[in-house]
Amino acid sequence: MTDFFKNIPQIKYEGPESTNEFAFRHYDPDEEILGKRMEDHLRFAVAYWHSLAWQGGDPFGGPTFERPWYADTMDAARLKADVAFEMFDILGTPFYAFHDLDARPEGKTFAESKRNLEEIVDYIGTKQTDHKAKLLWGTANMFTHRRWMAGAATNPDPEVYAYAAATVKTCLDATLKLGGQNYVLWGGREGYETLLNTDLKRERAQAGRFLQQVVEYAHKIGFKGTILIEPKPQEPSKHQYDYDVSTVYGFLKDFGLEKEVKVNIEQGHAILAGHSFEHEIATAAALGIFGSIDMNRNDYQSGWDTDQFPNNHAEVAVAYYEILRAGGYTTGGTNFDAKVRRQSLDPADLILAHVGGMDTCARGLRAAAYMLEDGPLEAARNARYAGWDREGAKAMLAQPLDVIEKAVIDNNINPQPRSGRQERLENLWNHYL
Ligand code: XLS
Ligand code: NI
Ligand code: NI
Q1: Residue nearest to atom 5 of ligand 1 (CA)
Q2: Partner of 155 for a Cys bridge, out of 70, 151, 198, 313, CB 3.0 to 4.6 A?
Q3: Does residue 186 line the site of ligand 1, with CB under 6 A?
């Protein structure tokens, strides 16, 4: 045991009346919701990068946190892993997620970085055996080091493409070894700063072939998890190629990957793309590519990816509503790709940020289940489309326009508009919260 979280107890469910800061008021892992334990619905994950690796820097200032594992050594990496699993134990989260760079020191060469990763993966593997938390997803950090500044797979330099391919290979190996349930590719610097120096067509083709190679390798090693793309419209680059769910779907179709790859949808990225979170989830579900979520919000004024913990259960409820309507997660989960603010220095801040996020999600999920189970919302939706069940309605879709025109004239068709009932439905949403 390290002493990093000394005096912080394991967080237990105490109910909404509890005044204990170190307790869940809404997240009760064993509570049954729609025939499934709450823990198995939500499938929470802690993000290694924000909680353990990020040091509190921002564009105006350097690190604000001081943690004993901030050093580029294997000893420090092991200490970080020890603290990570202590954190997962305190929270009782069933999962975590990490990039290669979060967990291992960068080597001087690719081979050294690879060795470092393999060594820490073995160490983390023994931790997984002794602790509850398992790997939700692994990923490669192909955006921090300067070699990635012009992209990874979309880089104009084929040597960077090679380095990226080799990097993802090692991270897929690591994810397989740790039994990871998914592998995520977030675009990082796959985008452009200016069209003046960018060959869009070529970069898109490179990105498509790269993803095919990733899928081919995943099959080759017998990785049974889900490969996920995480859409984002901008930041760090001015324009990210994986703009939003629809864009990613078009890209997957183009490269024949729509049955192989799904999406990991982040709340803040959806907002940056000018959508709502629930819009992105519903779109993915409709296209058959919903996979997982990153549950971190942006500050609505700042216009960038602030990665804050969720604290608005009304918003979260409609997101989970779409997830439940889609049948819930299979391999996916609720990853807190969220970080505490840079003034939140204390170990307790780190724990309580997650407690608040988990409670917010639990309230949202409970409301969402009630919305679905009680029925009036879905009944209203079905009633709205009921005309399509009438005789002849669907048959029309197979008819030429002139036949339809004749039917409109012969039957004197004269459609009468009906209320969309939006406010009444919003009142229902409010009622279930
Ligand atoms: C950045 C992304 C990143 C991915 C993992 O905005 O959210 O954190 O989730 O690479
Ligand atoms: Ni993000
Ligand atoms: Ni993310």
Answers
A1: 186
A2: 151
A3: yes
- Total-model pTM: 0.97
Residue 80, number of CB atoms within 10 A of its CB: 23
CA distance 400 to 335: 48
Looking at ligand 1, which atom is closest to the CA of residue 232?
6
For residues 88 and 132, the answer to whether their CB atoms sit within 8 Å is yes
Name all domains of the chain by residue range, CATH numbers in brackets: 12-374 (3.20.20.150), 379-432 (no CATH)
Q: For atom 4 of ligand 1, which residue has the closest CA? A: 186
Residue 230 CB–ligand 1 contact under 6 Å: yes
Owner of token pair 């729509």: 258
pLDDT tens readout for residues 88-141: 999 999 999 999 999 999 999 999 999 999 999 999 999 999 999 999 999 999
**What does the pLDDT average to over 56-65?**
96
Q: Best mutation site among 142, 189, 266 for ligand 1, i.e. most ligand atoms within 8 A of its Cβ?
A: 266
pLDDT at residue 301 greater than cutoff 90 = no
- Cβ–Cβ under 8 Å, residues 243 and 233: yes
Distance separating alpha carbons of residues 219 and 173, to the nearest angstrom: 12
Q: What is the pLDDT of residue 327?
A: 97
- C-alpha dist (Å) from residue 341 to 111, 309, 348: 35, 10, 13
Centre of ligand 2 to C-alpha 192, Å, is 17
User: What 3 state SS string does 132-143 have?
Assistant: CCEEEEEECCCC
At 286, which amino acid appears? A
pLDDT digits (tens, 9 = 90+) for 167-184: 999 999 999 999 999 999
DSSP state of 61: B
Binding site membership of 102 for ligand 1 (Cβ less than 6 Å): no
